[in-house]
Amino acid sequence: MDLTTVFRAFNPAQAQLMRCRLEAAGFHATVAGELAALSIDGYAMGAGGIRVQVPQDEANEAREFIEADKQSQA
């Protein structure tokens, strides 16, 4: 299964919160790079963030969900 990054966070809490929101909406989300970010200071920033990923066939819908979620919080 190919995973696609749909969201990047610079702290683990933000990444896990988005993963939970995606899962609650029916997506199969995972978090990548979280342990390295916790182990090495500055890793998350240097690596471009902690990645929230979904299967490639869910990516477009997940991005739309994230965008709608951002707009509802504004």
Description of the molecule:
The chain is of the alpha+beta class and 74 residues long. The chain has a single domain (3-73), classed as Alpha-Beta Plaits. It is 51% helix and 22% strand. The chain contains 4 helices and 3 strands. The protein has a 3-stranded antiparallel beta sheet with strand order 1-3-2. It is globular, with a radius of gyration of 12 Å. It starts with a strand and ends with a helix.
Order of helices and strands: EHEHHEH
Radius of gyration: 12 Å
Rounded average pLDDT: 86
Structural class call reads alpha+beta
Instruction: Tell me the domain tally.
Output: 1
Number of helices: 4
Main beta sheet: strand number and arrangement?
3 strands, antiparallel
CATH topology: the name is: Alpha-Beta Plaits
Present the secondary structure layout.
Layout: E1 3-9, H1 12-24, E2 30-32, H2 34-39, H3 43-46, E3 50-55, H4 59-73
Antiparallel strand pairs: 1-3, 2-3
Give a short overview:
With 74 residues, this protein is α+β, with helices and mostly antiparallel strands. Helix content is 51%, strand content 22%.
What tags apply to this protein structure?
alpha+beta, 3-stranded antiparallel β-sheet, 74 residues, Alpha-Beta Plaits, single chain
